[in-house]
Amino acid sequence: MMVTAQRAWRLAWLLLGVVCLLPALLPLSSLPLLSDWLPALSHHVIPEKARYSPLSYWLLLTLVWQAQRRWPVTPAPFFSVAFRQDLVWYCASMGLRLLFLGAWAHAVVAFYSHYLGFLTLPGVAQWHPAVQFVLGVLLADFARWLSHLIRHKVPLFWAFHSVHHAQRDLNLFTDARVHPVDRMVSSLVTSLALLITGNGVPAVILWMVIETLYPKFYHANVRLDLGPLRYLLVTPQSHRVHHGVEHRYHDCNFGFLFSLWDRLFGTQHPDHRIWPATGIPDANFPVDRDGSPLGLLRTLCRQLVYPFLSLRRRA
Ligand SMILES: [Zn+2]
Ligand SMILES: [Zn+2]
Question: I want to staple 147 with a disulfide (CB 3.0 to 4.6 A). Which of 102, 137, 189, 206 is the partner?
């Protein structure tokens, strides 16, 4: 039974790879998905490269998937309920992104240029775009670190962010388990950091693409701490500690891409050999129990409502 399920899953994964290859073979203009649903992406992000992104995304997922199988932290059951629940979160979040990513990026840029344009660093327009982007990424990563810390410390924001922390079986799709309110707050903060350094819509969208890729790796159930690279980057080990259920792990490792800010401000957990259990200590959280399609959708709805009920309980 289990072997058949694994074979079916592998076949589905291969078929998905073939589907992801198609955009690379077709002319970009024949992709209604890109031109109609993602006008900002198709017009601004280097179109010739945009067509390869589904394939590279699939390849990245395959690599992380294999790493999970070879070096798991905990031997997770194949296609567990927790994994299925994250997959549902992933589909919901991708749907929202496909529909609103371009519009959201444009709205943020319009808001910034109307009300906050005075914050743009002077003389930044003369800089090379690559310098603007690198500086923007550094500032955005710092803003993300700071906003992450705030989302842990302020009860209103924690109510929404705790949904992400509730996963007990981390896997490569856990990065998608983010409440839309939590995601809007974090993407707003980081987009503003990019705009301050003179970056426009293409850079904001490119950042949003980066922020969907790297976290896949460090949320995976994979026993890697990246050796000396851990001094520069967030790793699966350091982020697992951040997700630790015990109280002593609650205020450390807030980094998003770089571990730099945690090391600079003393919030990096010093031990890189621990792999704690993850989750949140709230008995009221609607945990993933029902793996049927209807059950998964029901749990998703309950987890989306959870922050509001949690805030009401506290009030
Ligand atoms: Zn967190
Ligand atoms: Zn996380």
Answer: 189
